[in-house]
Structure formats: C-alpha cells, structure tokens
Amino acid sequence: MKLFDVYPINDITIARAEGSYVWDDAGQRYLDLYGGHAVISIGHTNPHWVQRIETQLHQIAFYSNSVRIPLQQQLADKLGAVSGRPDYQLFLCNSGAEANENALKLASFHTGRKKIVAFKKAFHGRTSLAVAATDNPAIVAPVNETGNIVFLPYNDEAALHEWFNAHGGETAAVIIEAIQGVGGITVATDAFLQAIRARCTQHGAVFIADEVQCGYGRSGRFFCTDTAGVDADVYSMAKGMGNGFPVGGILIAPHIAPKHGLLGTTFGGNHLACAAALAVLEVIEQERLLQAAAETGTWLMEELKAIPQLQNVRGKGLMIGFDLPPQLKTLRAKLLQEYRIFTGEAKPAVVRLLPALNLGRAAAGEFLESLRAAIASLEREATPAHL
C-alpha cells in the first residue's frame, strides 16, 4: 500500500529529538526553529512532559466522555489560572481544525445566525466549516463552499464597520488570527481587535480568537489578543497545547450556555491528552515561558532587523516572520541543507520562525550566525566571476 501523496516533504528522517534540536537517522543534528508548525512549545521530549505521559500510560490511557475524567477538571483549573480566565468553560477536542469547527458551530447555535466574518489570507483548518472560513480556494472542496462566509480585508476597520452596519443582525461570529501564520505573519493592530470586540458586543455576535498557532504563550502573552486588552467570547487552541501530543480545545465565555449533546467528541479530553496538556502548562508556569518568549523574541527580532538584506521583520514573541528579496529566494533550502536549520515558510517569500518557547540564547545566536553566513554565501554565488 502506498501513502496518499499530499505532502511535499524534505528527504530527512528524524530519529530523535531533545529541546530545540533534532537528529536524523544518520546522527546529523539540526536546529529546529519551526517546531513542526509551532507545535513544540516546551521543547522536544521535555522530561516533565515525558514523565507525565508515561505515568498516565501505566494507569489508564483512554476511556470515553461517558465517565468522569478528573484530569479534565484539573486541566481546566490549571488552564483557567495560567490564561487568566478562570470563569471560562473548557471543551476538549483533538486538533486546531476541530477546535475552530466547534467554535463556529457553537457561535451559530448561540446566536441562531448563519453569517461568519473571516479575513483575507485566513487559515482556520481543513474540516468543513474551518476550511470554508479559510481564504485558500485550492483546499476548499465544492461540498465545503458556502455563501455564509464573508472575507473582509485584514486590519481594515472601515470595511468591518461597513459590514456590521449592513449585516450586524445576521452575523453569528467574527473569527480572526491575531497573527496570521499561514497568511505570512501578518499582525493585527490593537485597534482592529478592539473594533471587532466593540462591534460583536454591539450586535450580539460571537468574537472567536483563533489562537491555534499564535496562542498558548507564543506571542509572549498567553493569548495573542491579550496585547489589545480585549476578551474574546471563544478561544480556539491546539498546536502548542500538547507539545506534540494531539489535543485541542476551546475556551468559552460564561455567558454562552452548554446543553447535553450540543458538542461532542470520542477522543477529545482523553487521559493521555490531558496529562500531556497539564505537563505543558506546568512547564510554562514553572519556567516562566511567557516572559522568556517575550524577551527572547524581542531580542531576536532586533538582531534580524539589523541584517539589511531581510525585509519587513515582524511578529510578537517567538512568532516571527520576514520577507526575502529575490536574490535570497533559496535561503530556507540553504539553511536546511547546508546549515542544518529547520525554518518555516509562507507564500510567496516569507520565512517563519516558530521555535520552542524555551529557545535558549545560545541556540538563537547559532541561528543568527548561520543566517548571516548563508546570506553571504548566496550573495557570493549570485555575483558573476571576474575574468
């Protein structure tokens, strides 16, 4: 049987990992500044995380949500404390797409409305509603197409106000990534997030903060929208939530009431997932990783801004992007093949950095040194030899 060939992959087999480094099956070490799409939040094979999962595995790995699972309440308590939202409610699922799917459904159930506002270059996942709210026609199947989603320009307050003036009474929700990841590390302004909050409140719509990639401490705050001083009605989470163990969830404001059968999942909130997620929060809290991400990210962005060939360095915390000029279009490939450094990309020419929140200064310095060397090498290669 063949694997269904839908992923463009690098011809590298990672055999083991630790902290911010991975090793291939030939023993070659790589610096990981991508973390498998921002998933690795507390470092590969973090010892506390491994111990938490291993201990739980010897007790019970899974039972369904038809029985009481005390780990779920422990996770809810810890998440409420670390995120600063102890009065919110937690629904656990398995992935970011599933989190956004449930967030959008919940908003429609709560309001009795159908219209959803999303934004240009948004990426919210590949399940039915999540992909319908994703601004990439290439991955929206005909069955996913719907007239209930509108895409407005990102950071355009006038367009937002115009929409609500005309359709406020029909709008179930606004969903936004405070930093667009796949969209190219585009950062929402505080004023724009505040405008979304104001218009949702005014018209009874649900404000959904998609924090799947930009949340869970990556921005230097627990939720990226926290920098604007606003509270969303629903926060979707996944990626860094489990440090590689599949887990997702939504935090739901207290004014949105649950009822039996409204949402459901087989594997969401299972014992192992809760153990992994608790370990992540415990490490974030004990190692003060929100502060670490903020401080390391600020320093790293300043260093990147000092490299003249890089354009439009932006981001928050350890979610950083920069644009490449045409002469450096192969920079990511050179960093991987010659300098053994994993980075991410966004089309057409954006490099994305999404390392573990406990990325050390020495490792960050190693990246900067290699980055400068790679740029210099590409520039030499582009210069015609003099006869």
TrEMBL record:
Pfam families: Aminotran_3. Belongs to the class-III pyridoxal-phosphate-dependent aminotransferase family. It comes from the Bacteria. It comes from Flaviaesturariibacter aridisoli. CDD domains: OAT_like. Keywords: Aminotransferase, Pyridoxal phosphate, Transferase. PROSITE patterns: AA_TRANSFER_CLASS_3. Its cofactor is pyridoxal 5'-phosphate. GO terms for molecular function: identical protein binding; pyridoxal phosphate binding; transaminase activity. The keyword GTP-binding does not apply. This is Aspartate aminotransferase family protein.
